[in-house]
Amino acid sequence: WKSILGNQLSTSERMYLSRGFMRPRQVDLLTPFVDQYFESLLDMWSNTSFEEASSNVEQLFPRYIITQGTLDKTDTWLNGIGKDAPEVLRRLVSEGRDTLARGLRIKAKDSLTKYLSQKEVLR
């Protein structure tokens, strides 16, 4: 995380690290970075080039931490500190939010389907 947001590496190295950071099978390792993501957004945006900042915002969005808590933190950022953020930054975070909300709906439907299937088996 520090390497991605720092200046010790080249831009290319940081961009490749950000592309490999968020992985679906590492939810337990990534969960602590949800708060750090939202705390770092404005700095990420203002301290790097547009290309690098937009890539980091998209690549580091906690899309695999599919919880109501992550959705709430996204909404809190969008309606709080991010309310006056540049429109492009808000759009990128909103797109991540939409993907996350869709994932929550799918997860809820899947859980309901499994629950109903188990009830049928018990009958």
Summarize the structure.
This protein is mainly alpha-helical and 123 residues long. It is 76% helix and 0% strand.
Report on the structure:
The chain has 123 residues and is mainly alpha-helical. 76% of the residues lie in helices and 0% in strands. It is built from seven helices and no strands. It has helices spanning 2-5, 11-21, 27-30, 33-47, 50-60, 68-79, 87-122. It is globular, with a radius of gyration of 17 Å. The protein starts with a helix and ends with a helix.
Describe the secondary-structure layout.
Layout: H1 2-5, H2 11-21, H3 27-30, H4 33-47, H5 50-60, H6 68-79, H7 87-122
Helix pairs in contact: 2-5, 4-5, 6-7
Portion of residues in beta strands equals under 5%
Task: Count the DSSP helices.
Answer: 7
Assign the structural class, choosing from mainly alpha, mainly beta, alpha/beta, alpha+beta, or little secondary structure: mainly alpha
- Extract low-pLDDT stretches: none
Order of helices and strands: HHHHHHH
Major sheet attributes: none
Portion of residues in helices?
A: over 70%
Radius of gyration: 17 Å
User: Tally of extended strands?
Assistant: 0
Shape descriptor reads: globular
